[in-house]
Amino acid sequence: MFRKILIANRGEIALRVIRACRELGIKTVAVYSEADRASLHVRFADEDVCIGPAPSASSYLDAKRIISAAEVTNADAIHPGYGFLAENAEFAEIVESCGITFIGPKPDMIRKMGDKGVAKQMMRRAGIPVIPGSDGIVKDVEEAHSIAAEIGYPVMIKAVAGGGGRGMRMCRDESEIETNFAMARAEAEVAFKNPDVYIEKVIVNPHHVEIQLMGDSFGNIIHFGERDCSIQRRHQKLVEECPSPIITPELRAIMGRTAVLGASTIHYLGAGTVEFLVDGEGNFYFMEMNTRIQVEHPITEEATDIDLVKEQIRVAAGEKLRYRQEDVILKWHAIECRINAEDPDKDFRPAPGEITSFHVPGGHGIRVDTAAYAKYIIPPFYDSMIAKLIVRAQTRRQAIEKMKYALEEFIIEGIPTTIDFHRKIFSHPDFINGNFDTSFIQKMNESNKEEQTAKTKTVDNEK
Question: Out of 166, 185, 252, 292, which one is annotated catalytic?
Answer without folding.
Answer: 292
